[in-house]
Amino acid sequence: MKISVFIINYNNGRFLNRCINSVLKQSYLKKEIIVFDDCSIDNSKEIISKIKGIKKIFNKKKIKSGSQSQIKGIKQCLDICTGDIICFLDSDDFFERNKLKKVALFFRKNFFSKIVTDKEIYFYKKNKMLKHPKKINFFRFMRYPKFPPQSCISIKKEYLKNIFQDLSINQFDDVWFDFRILVFSYFIDGKVDVIDEYLTYYQQSSNSVSQKFKKFSTNWWQRRLSSHQFVFYLIKKYNFYSISFLFDFFITKIVCIVRKKLDRF
User: Fold this and answer.
1) Which of 57, 50, 49, 1 lies closest to 29 in space, CA to CA?
2) Host H or E run for residue 128
3) DSSP 148-181
4) Total structural domains in the chain?
């Protein structure tokens, strides 16, 4: 079983060596690394070019939408990957040394599983880390879902290829790939499996696009509303019924209307 690791990078040159080396040094040997650089303007391209033993894609034209640019990178990686399993890794994050080995073991033991997540360790700086204290709970009744970051997601390649068209719909610009893929898998397939181990170090860099979505800001509420709209798109297309977090949708809708009016003054 071969594992392909997709690393989508934009201006994270200072973290790239740590990120890529965490995969190169994995105890699991049957792997490949594909790095997609999305028109970085820092030293990312130089760093990627010097690293041997990886596949490299340099994007030539950046898309304005952050989520669609990310999806474009994943699609190009998917087109050239040769693995049976795909692990995602943001370029400011890194893996625990035995992660790929444990992901491979999970899929060998759970033949019918299509997607799995592991747990994240919040990484701030050397010798300062915090393990996520709570049990992963993807969808809590009447409340907005919480789930691990994209770097914790592993998925069978054939399954990703089959659902990619729905995940890459050219709408909902502020809805990122991790939300799309986990929501789709939960609602359409009924579950998302979890490896109950801390295998991913998560560090959101200060230049991340997500920084413009500060909690409870107007952008934050608008993205929340777009996420609900993506769920309704799936509900309509696949004709299933869910009231999992309708209450949260109505609250979000009201807040967005009020914030929009206040921002005009």
Assistant:
1) 1
2) strand 128-131
3) --GGGEEEEHHHHHHHHHHHT-S--TT--HHHHH
4) 1
Cβ count near 40 (within 10 Å): 21
Interatomic CA distance for residues 192 and 169, integer angstroms: 21
- At residue 53, φ and ψ (nearest 5 deg) are 85, 15
pLDDT tens figures, 156-215: 999 999 999 989 888 888 888 999 999 888 887 778 899 999 999 998 765 656 667 678
What average pLDDT is seen over the chain? Answer: 87
The one-letter amino acid code at 131 reads K
d(CA 161, CA 176): 18
Of 202, 203, 196, 159, nearest to 181 (Cα)?
159
- Does 151 map to a domain? yes
- Which residues of the chain register pLDDT less than 70? 125-128, 132-145, 205-211, 213, 241-244, 262-265
Both tokens assigned to 170 = 């050219």
CATH classification of the domain holding 139: 3.90.550.10
The tokens describing 141, both together, are: 């009744």
Closest among 10, 42, 31, 35 to 20, alpha carbons compared = 35
Residue 67 lies in a domain: yes
Give domain status of residue 196, yes or no: yes
Q: Tell me, what DSSP letter sits at residue 212?
A: G
Amino acid in the structure at residue 26: Q
The partner residues of 95 in beta bridges, in order of sequence, read: 200
**What is the predicted pLDDT for the residue at 201?**
94
Which of 177, 193, 185, 164 is closest to 89 using CA atoms? 177
| Domain span holding position 90 | 3-207
Q: In terms of Cα–Cα distance, which of 30, 24, 160, 36 is closest to 108? A: 30
Q: 120 forms bridges with which residues in the sheet? A: 200
Residue 157: inside a domain: yes
